Amino acid sequence: MPRGSSLALATLLFLAGAASGYLLGHTPHQVLAQDRDDRQPPASAPVSGRGSDETVVAELARNYDLFRTVDRTFELVARVVSPSVVHITARKDGPREGGQPTRFEETGSGVIVRCDGVKGVFVLTNNHVVEGAASSDINIALHDGQVLKPEKLWTDPKADVAVMKLGKDNLPCARMGNSDDARIGSWVMALGSPFGLMQSVSQGIISARGRHEQQLEFDGVEHQEFLQTDAAINPGNSGGPLVNMKGEVIGINTAIASNGGGSEGVGFSIPINLAKWAMSQLLSGGKVMRGAMGVNLQELTPARASELGLEKPRGAHVSAVHEGSPASQAGLSEGDVILRFDGVEVVDYNHLINLVSMATIGKSCDLTVWRDRRTLSARVKIADRDGILSKAPDPALPPQPARR
User: Fold this and answer.
1) Which of 111, 135, 146, 372 sits between 20 and 30 A of 197, alpha carbons compared?
2) Has 333 been annotated as catalytic?
3) 3-state DSSP assignment of residue 199
4) At 295, is the pLDDT very low, low, confident or very high (cuts 50, 70, 90)?
5) Does residue 201 sit in helix, strand or coil?
6) One of 82, 200, 238, 258 is an active-site residue; which one?
7) What is the pLDDT of residue 213?
8) Catalytic site includes residue 144
9) How far is the C-alpha of 99 from the C-alpha of 66, rounded, in Å?
10) Is 160 a catalytic residue?
């Protein structure tokens, strides 16, 4: 799973079909037609010539009016968001060669934002873009050519989020939206610096939600619930914004699924609600405090769901309960399936991990549990994850997929 860490500079092109079924181009008045000898025109079509070309051009101009507003919307989104997008260069220590230290450069993108309740202007990006680099070794290039260094850097590897404070307060900031409202099939745009090409834009749709990539978990990114998009994301796009058609940031681009290292139409973006939550915790307390109940979770397969009497594999399957944990005190048992948490239907164990992680520590949350082919109610008090894990004995068996 390569990550995008450096978008061809794109003029926004939008292809749409009119009701008549013609394929229309972005520029209605410049159409080049070339006849093929092996394809005969329909009997009703006029012979190619100046008159017929002018007819086609006129029809294209008329049909362009059908999506002129959409075309203009893409242009406006790019115009309003681009000034807040930055190019990041980080100098890092590499492996020693011949006993001598080496240095290498990692590039990526970021977006300038503000955080509710915190003074100042910040760059929101991926942890892996700046991981291992000192603030003095990081350059942040703005849209107007200015290059700044961060005054302070905070990172959260578990969510692959990093926040950098800037010394200037009069900078253009992006507006952050609600990633919970991002619907599959809705248009989005990705902005950043693919292959070092600053201020590049691509467009696509939300292809899926709630994606989890095991390779990233191996890399330490435990907190996952990615938005999937086919907007082009390439090396250098990491940390750049994914925005909706209102010009609101709904995600932070972080990874791609690719056989060749470049965009193949499968990109992953951290939901902005998760990124905002991590940023707020980093700025208020210096680190991210995650909630936990004290259970080990595993995937609920269709076969196992059927054995348990469930109609479909929905929910999180409990494989172990830590002794003395909030889950134990709430009466949870190995083999339970948690169907709802704090009023939210649980999709799978990764979904529950995110719900519990982001729950307020000390809060009591209602659970709906499936046990012995019927539903039960329970109430659990959320505790600090680090505290629970420090008390949990290491099992003799191979580790479970997740502990929460």
Assistant:
1) 135
2) no
3) coil
4) very high
5) strand
6) 238
7) 83
8) no
9) 65
10) yes
367 bridge partner residues? 341, 378
Closest CA relative to residue 162, chosen from 97, 100, 221? 221
Q: Which of 156, 160, 230, 336 is catalytic?
A: 160
If you write DSSP's letter for every residue of 97-151 in order, what string do you get? ETTEEEEEEEEEEEEEEEETTEEEEEEEE-HHHHTT--GGGEEEE-TTS-EE--S
The four Cα atoms 315, 288, 225, 338 give a dihedral, to 10 degrees, of 0
What whole-number distance in Å separates Cα of residue 246 and Cα of residue 244? 5
Interatomic CA distance for residues 359 and 382, integer angstroms: 7
Residues 6+ positions from 3 with CB-CB distance below 8 Å: 126, 128, 235, 238, 254, 255, 256
Which amino acid is present at 386?
A: D
Q: What is the pLDDT of residue 21?
A: 37
Spatial separation of the C-alpha atoms in residues 136 and 130, rounded to whole Å:
11
222 has a pLDDT exceeding 70: yes
Which amino acid is it at 21? G
Please report, in angstroms and rounded to a whole number, the separation of the first and last CA atoms in the chain: 25
Looking at 5, 84, 109, 128, which residue is catalytic? 128
